[in-house]
């Protein structure tokens, strides 16, 4: 053994160190609180602990009517003062009315001033000056919190939109407005917050259901291990039960079609043809025709005959696949630690996902508060320019653009770091894909080395080395990190291109350019095929690396030509093996998914009180189903890797050896008999 693909190994290590540095820089500049908490006009978080706004968790808009302005969609910010408050207003009131009655109704002023700027307590100040300086809102309306923001408390009475049973209200500027104006303003904000609201709800669902999601994934892990143990003893039985089950179901379908065909005999109109009745939107119309059931019966008969013929002509190939599964079971029986190696791969991938997600969040929340001039007048030349809230009132902007204000817009900056955040996000995604593919490659090479040590043991199990899994893992890390990183790099590049194509397709979905859509569709299809091909080549290249210790390119070439020389066996063996393991994945994911569905929809009385209250129950449900499938995939990949490794070893065994005393076969006697080769030479003691 010697180190392979050293240059790629060095580059890989340098990239990992750079990735760590990127995470540290993002952690220094980022602040996830910017995603969780709403931000007022001063750039302060609402509800943040150990601050003046600790008990003020809700954002209040001074003049929500301004939120109907087009500036909301342009600047992603409502052009009105926004404050953090503890409770939304529960009544109609205007500043003019409150100021006029504060002498004999001080309770109204005390209630109204909590929606004014902090520290303002001067009801004697003229109304014009208060509204100009936006010390207080011109009005308050009954509201309720939604997404930690105060929105009008709409209701419908006799088909009429109302707020607190009123259809009109005073805007505090001498006008009487209709509540439909509030609806337009609320919709203006909702257009900005729509995507953010869905994300927040999903985040909240994960925050209160993560414990149950982990329990479901643990159950999936136990079911996967149980299925692997059972597959060791029942691989052939499961396959033939399924095959004969499919034949039986199709046979029943043929009988049912014939019964329906015979039952419709003599019924008026049943002898019409599909051509006679033409196209009908109601499919039940076709089911009243004898011709329909005759067509179904002919199709099912054709499928039944094809399946039976395939079983007859491919019976030896199927026996080989089942034999290799059983041989893999024996190998796993001697190397039981391989069953638990997917946990290592799962932990490595979980670390990669966690690091990527945290880094992405910190990158997205990097930067200092940026303030911009918010003016409701489209002719204001200062609109959307950056400003300083501390000196804004001393400038001429408020005179030239009445009503303009310096409000918080977003988090960003003008430094080199902030200018290239998008590039850093792309780099974060690319290195994440590279590391995930490397973790998978490391697992495949480690398992292949362990199972290859079983196959090439002359006397099984006496010649199997001690701790074969750990020895294989050490060899892969010590000698072949560069080769594994090389294969993972190629795959990561293709996957990143696919991600970019999907992003472009999503952005251009509304365009009417047919050529662009056609070109994108072709590119997506080509790169999908390329990714599948590379995964197949990489997998077998890692097996050859584990066996012979050569570099990635040489191993990939030798594996490819070896498989091409046995292409028929490869096709049948892979499909039969993948089919059996796919059934196991569906069984595990489906079983856990059904259990999760009954749990999260409160249909299990025993756990009804334990079910968390969710915005979308499908969020944890889909997570559980996808996670269970991935967990099952991780465990069943042990069997798949075992069978693929034994098959390549077997092909090499046949090409290098002839069964003579000088060149004896290394395959087991049972596999040798099924493959119909020459009698094994006696093995020396």
TrEMBL record:
<feature type="transmembrane region" description="Helical">
    <location>
        <begin position="431"/>
        <end position="458"/>
    </location>
</feature>
<protein>
    <recommendedName>
        <fullName>Choline transporter-like protein</fullName>
    </recommendedName>
</protein>
<keyword id="KW-1003">Cell membrane</keyword>
<dbReference type="GO" id="GO:0005886">
    <property type="term" value="C:plasma membrane"/>
</dbReference>
<feature type="transmembrane region" description="Helical">
    <location>
        <begin position="210"/>
        <end position="230"/>
    </location>
</feature>
<keyword id="KW-0050">Antiport</keyword>
<feature type="transmembrane region" description="Helical">
    <location>
        <begin position="613"/>
        <end position="641"/>
    </location>
</feature>
<feature type="transmembrane region" description="Helical">
    <location>
        <begin position="7"/>
        <end position="28"/>
    </location>
</feature>
<dbReference type="GO" id="GO:0015297">
    <property type="term" value="F:antiporter activity"/>
</dbReference>
<comment type="function">
    <text>Choline/H+ antiporter.</text>
</comment>
<dbReference type="Pfam" id="PF04515">
    <property type="entry name" value="Choline_transpo"/>
</dbReference>
<keyword id="KW-0325">Glycoprotein</keyword>
<feature type="transmembrane region" description="Helical">
    <location>
        <begin position="293"/>
        <end position="314"/>
    </location>
</feature>
<keyword id="KW-0472">Membrane</keyword>
<dbReference type="InterPro" id="IPR007603">
    <property type="entry name" value="Choline_transptr-like"/>
</dbReference>
<feature type="transmembrane region" description="Helical">
    <location>
        <begin position="334"/>
        <end position="358"/>
    </location>
</feature>
<keyword id="KW-0812">Transmembrane</keyword>
<feature type="transmembrane region" description="Helical">
    <location>
        <begin position="237"/>
        <end position="255"/>
    </location>
</feature>
<feature type="transmembrane region" description="Helical">
    <location>
        <begin position="579"/>
        <end position="601"/>
    </location>
</feature>
<keyword id="KW-1133">Transmembrane helix</keyword>
<feature type="transmembrane region" description="Helical">
    <location>
        <begin position="479"/>
        <end position="501"/>
    </location>
</feature>
<comment type="function">
    <text>Choline transporter.</text>
</comment>
<comment type="similarity">
    <text>Belongs to the CTL (choline transporter-like) family.</text>
</comment>
<keyword id="KW-0813">Transport</keyword>
């Amino acid at each position: 053994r010697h180190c392979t693909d050293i240059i790629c190994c060095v580059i890989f290590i340098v990239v990992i160190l750079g990735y760590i540095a990127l995470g540290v820089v993002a952690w220094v500049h980022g602040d996830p609180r910017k995603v969780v908490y709403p931000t007022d006009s001063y750039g302060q978080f609402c509800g943040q602990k150990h601050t003046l706004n600790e008990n003020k968790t809700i954002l209040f808009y001074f003049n929500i009517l301004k939120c109907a302005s087009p500036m909301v969609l342009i600047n992603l910010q409502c052009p009105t003062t926004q404050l953090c408050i503890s409770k939304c207003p529960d009544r109609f009131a205007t500043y003019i009315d409150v100021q006029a009655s504060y002498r004999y109704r001080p309770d109204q002023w005390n209630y109204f001033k909590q929606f004014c700027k902090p520290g303002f307590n001067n009801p004697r100040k003229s109304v014009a000056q208060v509204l100009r300086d936006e010390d207080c809102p011109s009005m308050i309306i009954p509201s309720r919190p939604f997404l930690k923001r105060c929105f009008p408390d709409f209701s419908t009475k006799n088909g009429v939109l109302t707020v607190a049973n009123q259809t009109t209200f005073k805007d505090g500027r001498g006008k009487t407005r209709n509540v439909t104006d509030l609806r337009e303003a609320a919709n203006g904000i909702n257009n900005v917050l729509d995507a953010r609201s869905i994300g927040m709800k999903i985040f909240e669902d994960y925050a209160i259901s993560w414990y149950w999601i982990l329990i479901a994934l643990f159950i999936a892990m136990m079911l996967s291990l149980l299925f692997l143990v059972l597959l060791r003893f029942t691989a052939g039985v499961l396959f033939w039960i399924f095959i004969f089950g499919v034949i039986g179901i199709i046979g029943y379908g043929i009988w049912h079609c014939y019964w329906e065909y015979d039952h419709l005999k003599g019924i008026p109109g049943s002898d019409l043809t599909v051509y006679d009745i033409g196209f009908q939107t109601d499919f039940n119309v076709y089911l009243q025709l004898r011709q329909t059931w005759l067509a179904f019966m002919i199709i099912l008969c054709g499928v039944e005959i094809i399946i039976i013929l395939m079983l007859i002509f491919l019976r030896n190939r199927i026996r080989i696949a089942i034999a290799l599964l059983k041989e893999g079971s024996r190998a796993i029986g001697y190397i039981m630690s391989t069953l638990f190696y997917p946990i290592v791969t799962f932990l490595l991938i979980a670390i990669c996902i966690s690091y990527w997600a945290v880094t992405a969040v910190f990158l997205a929340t990097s930067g200092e508060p940026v303030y911009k001039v918010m003016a409701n007048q489209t002719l204001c030349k200062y609109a959307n320019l950056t400003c300083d809230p501390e000196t804004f009132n001393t400038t001429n902007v408020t005179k030239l653009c009445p009503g303009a204000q310096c409000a918080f817009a977003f988090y960003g900056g003008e430094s080199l770091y902030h200018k290239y955040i998008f590039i850093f996000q792309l780099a974060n995604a690319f290195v994440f894909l590279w590391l995930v593919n490397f973790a998978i490659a490391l697992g495949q090479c480690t398992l292949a080395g362990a199972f290859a040590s079983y196959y090439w043991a002359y006397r099984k199990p006496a010649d199997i080395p001690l701790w074969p899994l750990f020895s294989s893992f050490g060899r892969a890390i010590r000698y072949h990190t560069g080769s594994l990183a090389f294969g993972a790099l190629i795959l990561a590049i293709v996957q990143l291109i696919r991600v970019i194509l999907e992003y472009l397709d999503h952005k251009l979905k509304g365009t009417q350019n047919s050529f662009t859509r056609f070109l994108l569709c072709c590119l997506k299809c080509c790169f999908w095929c390329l990714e599948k091909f590379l995964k197949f080549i990489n997998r077998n290249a890692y097996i050859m690396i584990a066996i012979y210790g050569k570099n990635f390119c040489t191993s990939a070439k030798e594996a490819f030509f070896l498989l091409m020389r046995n292409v028929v066996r490869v096709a049948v063996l892979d499909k039969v093996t993948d089919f059996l393991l796919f059934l196991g994945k569906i069984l595990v994911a489906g079983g856990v998914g059904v259990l999760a569905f009954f749990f999260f929809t409160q249909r299990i009385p025993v756990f009804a009180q334990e079910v968390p209250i969710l915005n979308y129950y499908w969020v944890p449900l889909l997570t559980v189903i996808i996670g269970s499938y991935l967990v099952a995939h991780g465990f069943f990949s042990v069997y798949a890797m075992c069978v693929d490794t034994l098959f390549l070893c077997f092909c090499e065994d046949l090409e290098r050896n002839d069964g003579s005393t000088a060149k004896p076969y290394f395959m087991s006697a049972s596999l040798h008999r099924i493959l119909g080769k020459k009698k094994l030479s006696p093995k020396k003691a």
